[in-house]
Amino acid sequence: KALWVLYHDERLSVAPLIEVLTGPVPPERDAAEALGWIGPAADRAIPHLVALVRRADANPQVARAAAEALGRIGTADAEALRVLRIASRVPQMRSSALVAIRKIGAR
Fold first, then answer.
1. Which of 41, 70, 92, 96 could cross-link 10 (Cys pair, CB 3.0–4.6 Å)?
2. Which tens digits make up the pLDDT trace of 1-37?
3. Are 35 and 68 in contact (CB under 8 A)?
4. pTM over 0.85
């Protein structure tokens, strides 16, 4: 949230947050949450968030945050929807994935 609050400009905040998602730094959950708060302007992060949802078995908290971010971004990305549907079958992902699917479908 800090980058978004400081800059309130997706052009300045999305790229560094994507780096956190793909880098060795552990705060992927925080980066995913921040991208979700940015909303539709963070749509270029969708492939990176989808990758985190796919790895739900490695870190369910990060995967839930990524699913929630996909819902907040709200872009009807076919791959994101496919991965969220698969994730909705996993007990620890079900709620976050279904909420994200509903939010994406509502836009």
1. 41
2. 555 555 566 666 777 777 777 765 468 888 898 899 8
3. no
4. no
Q: What angle separates helix 60-73 from helix 94-105, to the nearest 10 degrees?
A: 10
Q: Tens of pLDDT along 59-102?
A: 899 999 999 999 999 998 999 999 999 999 999 999 999 999 99
User: 23's torsion region: left (phi>0), alpha (psi -120 to 50) or beta?
Assistant: beta
Residue in 69, 54, 68 with CA at minimum distance from that of residue 99: 68
Cβ 31 vs Cβ 17: under 8 Å: yes
Cα–Cα distance, 55 to 40 (Å, whole number): 23
